[in-house]
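At this stage, I put together one protein's amino acid sequence and its backbone structure tokens, which the following lines show:
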Amino acid sequence: MDAMVVAACGNCGGSISRRCKADPLSLMQRNGKENRMSQTISLPIPQDAAKRAERRVFKYALEIMDYQPVDMPAGAEILCVHGQWGKPCIWALVNPNNQVETRRFRIVGTGHSAEDITFSGYIGTAQIVYPMDGPLVWHAFEVPA
């Protein structure tokens, strides 16, 4: 079984972390030289670690419109919304190997009607400065498809 080996050096107080299939105590003897380890702990690596290792942060630019579909890998976790280059953008933690699904988002300007949305779908607020209009504030919600 793979393990994450964490060892604290008795000489300098630093730590060593690495993936190891061998006995964790083998870290204490490298090239026959004495290496004073004050503590060695072997932590198991979760079996789903390989799936998590495939995750990436992707950006999805949104248009300033009421409703819009966005295709993203299934199981994507929405992290935040911010303005970038004049558009609200959503950042999501995704596994690009997952099948693509369509999710639906709504952008609402401050003071605009929002009768059909609930706070549970709230992602965040983005302030975007436009040269002609000045700063405008947009609120992003995920809504049922």
Q: What stands out?
A: The first strand starts at residue 3 and ends at 9. Confidence is low (pLDDT under 50) at residues 1-40. Residues 53-143 form one domain.
